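Q: What residues go here?
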């Protein structure tokens, strides 16, 4: 008998319909038990197997995640700067992030609010802390919601679509195995990107220095 914990979890969520998917997307903002991309890949796999239609999966997951963003944003505004900053640092430590790094993100958000709000929703861990940063800095609500909606929609669509595509292409019935395959591919791709980036940046910096001389 195959062991398929992700498949069992998705079946339980699917039993509640789109409301179950909305709820898990909302809860992930506050209790990130699984990496969001792993959860979304599993949602895509379940959609391919008929648990939800693809439009319903996208709509429920995007609205749930966006509502979580908005709640975090307003909580940060309501708590005030001192308590929000302390909570932000405490949350950052749980993910291995230093106060210095969080301060650099804060500076980036100050410099370009809309662009940062969109980009932050496309980076693991950062996407969970970005709404708190926006609330702390009292970014305009309309600008924050619009930018976050774009980022959340893109993030969810990529990984749900990836789950659907993987389930369609690979003849594997076990959702946990499929999700693991996708996650391994993502980790590999991220490693390749980091290697390219670390080699490219020094070359660009050296070229800039030569041109300046």
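A:
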């Amino acid at each position: 008998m195959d062991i398929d914990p992700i498949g069992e979890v998705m079946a339980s969520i699917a039993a509640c319909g789109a409301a179950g998917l909305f709820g898990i997307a909302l809860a992930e903002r506050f209790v990130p038990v699984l990496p969001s991309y792993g959860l979304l890949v599993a949602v895509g796999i379940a959609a391919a197997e008929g648990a939800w239609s693809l439009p319903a999966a996208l709509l429920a997951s995007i609205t749930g995640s966006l509502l979580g963003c908005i709640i975090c944003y307003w909580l940060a505004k309501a708590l005030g700067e001192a308590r929000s900053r302390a909570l932000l640092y405490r949350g950052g430590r749980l993910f291995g992030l230093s106060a210095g790094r969080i301060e650099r993100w804060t500076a980036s958000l100050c410099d370009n609010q809309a662009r940062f709000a969109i980009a932050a929703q496309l980076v693991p861990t950062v996407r969970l802390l970005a709404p708190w940063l926006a609330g702390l800095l009292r970014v305009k609500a309309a600008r924050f919601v619009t930018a976050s909606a774009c980022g959340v929609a893109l993030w969810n669509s990529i990984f749900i679509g990836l789950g659907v595509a993987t389930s369609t292409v690979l003849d594997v019935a076990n959702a946990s195995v499929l999700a693991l395959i996708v996650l391994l591919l993502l980790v590999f791709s991220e490693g390749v990107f980091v290697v390219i980036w670390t080699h490219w940046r020094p070359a660009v910096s050296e070229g800039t220095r030569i041109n300046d001389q």
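A: Context that may help when evaluating the design: Residues 184 and 190 are 10 Å apart (CA to CA). Residues 5-176 form one domain.
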